[in-house]
Every structure is written in structure tokens, then in C-alpha cells.
Amino acid sequence: MSDIYSNSYLTIAASKARSATETLFVPGQIEQGQTHWFRSSDNQMYAIHTREPEPHLYDFGGYAWQTETQAYRRTHRKTPLPLLRRAWAFQERYLSPRVVHFGPAELLWECAEDKCCECSNAKYPEDRKRLHVSGNTKPTYMYTSAQIWMDLIEQYTEKELTYPSDIFPGIQGVAKAMDRAGNYHAGIWDDDDVLQQLVWRAAKPGRPEKWRAPSWSWASVRGPVRYLLRSSHMGWKPKQMASLVSISTSPVGLDPLGEVRSGRLQLKGPCVDMQLDHRGLSREFPHKQVWTWPRQGVPSWHTRWSPDYDLSPFYGRTVKMMDIIHWPNDHVDDRRFLENRCYLVFICVNEVEEIYERIGHFEPHGEHIIGPLSGLGEETVLTIV
Description:
Layout: H1 2-6, E1 11-13, E2 34-39, E3 45-50, H2 70-75, H3 87-95, E4 98-102, E5 107-111, E6 115-117, H4 126-129, H5 145-156, H6 172-177, E7 184-185, E8 188-189, H7 194-198, E9 200-202, E10 225-227, E11 239-240, E12 243-251, E13 260-278, E14 289-292, E15 301-303, E16 306-307, E17 318-332, E18 337-350, E19 355-362, H8 367-373, E20 378-384
């Protein structure tokens, strides 16, 4: 299917249709707007025709960008272009060199170079072109292939899938088109940016009812994911505290880009043992967690972190936090350039073979937390499934 769309001359999309039973065309007469008459200073009459601006692709679900606010996302969740909410259509649209969209009031055109509409009101910001259609999967002087891939995954996980097991087949063609040096394992590329790809968070914690991906993959959770670190701007690069030992997956079929049967990841890095607890401390922060150090004389922490799903069965259990990656934040004081840090949180699911699963991630904030953590942790190799 990916070859069909990527080699097509033109893709015609019934973007306004909610199902295959609806028509491609707009029935009836479209509202043309209103006419207003004005008299000029030289006593001449002029007519001005006005109408409400039409919704456009990037306004209603065509793109999902981390720079947009959550309020913006919620406001534009219900799109008049239902096709753009569907995950399979995301891949078809991305791979097609040229697309004509039949909207509720006009036709819209998009290709790798430009985008326009009948009312001429659509604007196409330059940074949106890089994540549009075929030909834009190659890294540029501004964007690495890792950034392009992570942007695509953020968009893709916002879309709707009828069958959750299609999570990998639904983006299989895009993965095939990517110009990446590494190998592909359950949505992760094992190249130099692999740690950046591992530090994602679930926008809404939850897992699908049926297993579809190893816990370290973004596909192991249900719904949108966000990446903590996507860019290396201003000349800096993230400081990698952990390293990849090995990564492997077992595909269901012959194609390694499709569904997977199992997966295993080995990471080496500094680990700290913590005890997981939970207390709803306030209405403002109902998901605050209590980290308890299993060491005498060290105080507990009351802080927020991001679980991948409901962890209430594990409260009281000891978990491992591995220091994964550090990067500068946007605030500079007189003493030092402050750092952001990301720890991945794992729990043991097989004590005999020492097998772990990822259950969330933790970003420490404040010297009362970062201070005790600095320099701690024993170098450990963890096997994660």
C-alpha cells in the first residue's frame, strides 16, 4: 500500500466524509457570505463582500505540534475534516506526493512544496512543510532524522485506530520511507539518537487491553505521546548518562516494520532504588507521588512524575530509576547553567531472570531533589521487555 501512495501522481481525499458511505462532493448551495455597502469620501458607493474564514488543514487536526498549547489542541480536537483524524489516512496523506482534499466548503491542495485553497486564506508556515508528504523524510541542516521521526510519532499517536493492533502497520510505510542509519524495533531506531527516542511520556496514562508493544516503546501506551527532548538547538547536545547495550524485537510476520510478537531492550546506566507510594495531596495535584528512599536518614519526596498507566497495584514496591539523559533548560542564574534530567522508572516483573518493565519517567526539579540524586546510582545493566 505504501508503494501505491508514494508512487501516485495525485491522491483525492474525501476529507470531509465521516465514512465511505458519504459523498465526495458538497451538496446544496454553499453560503457565500454577506455584502456590505460603504460610501467613500468622494461620495462613491463601494461593495465589500465578507464571509467567515474556512477551516484549513493545519487549523483542524492536520498537524500536531509541541509548540501549540494544550488549550489549542483541545479547542481544535473536533475537526470538520474527519478523515484527518484517522491513523491510516495520516500515512496515506504523508506518503502521497500531491493531495486534493474535498472539504466542507472548498477544495484544498497540498504537496511537498506548497499548500493552497480556493478562498486563498490558508497560510502554510515554513516549519510545517518538513513534515508533510513524501520527500521530506531526509534530514536537513535544521532538522535531524530523529526530530522528524519524533514529530511524526507525536502526530500519529493523536489519530484514531479502529484496531489497536494496527499501531505499527498504520505507520509502516512512513518508517520504510525514513532515511535512517539504524535498525527499526517497535517504533524505535537504534541509532545515535536512541536515548532521545526512549524519553517519551503518555499524555493520558493507560495501556491497551491487549499487549501490542514492549513497555519501552511509545506504542505500549494508549493515546498521544509527547517527547521530552526533540531538538539540539543553540549548538548544544544532550548529555547521555546511559547507553544502549542491545535491542531486539520478534515480528509477527516477515516484515520487521509490522506487528511485533515480543521485544527486549538492555540499557546500562546509573540506577537508584526507590520505593513507590501514592497520596492524593491536593485537588490541584491529585497524581502526586511519594518517593521513599530505602535508606535510613534520607527524607521522602512529595513530587509529581509521569506514570505510563495505573500503578496502584505496585504501591509500596521498590522500583529502579535509571538516569538516562541531561540537557540544558532555558533558565540561567549567576552560579550555573541549570540542567533538565530524565530518569526512566522500571519495575521487576521476573525476579529469577531479572527482567524489568518500564512504568513511567521522572523529571526531578529543585535542589532538594536533584542534590541528593547527584552522583548517586550504581552502574547497572537492566533488561526491559
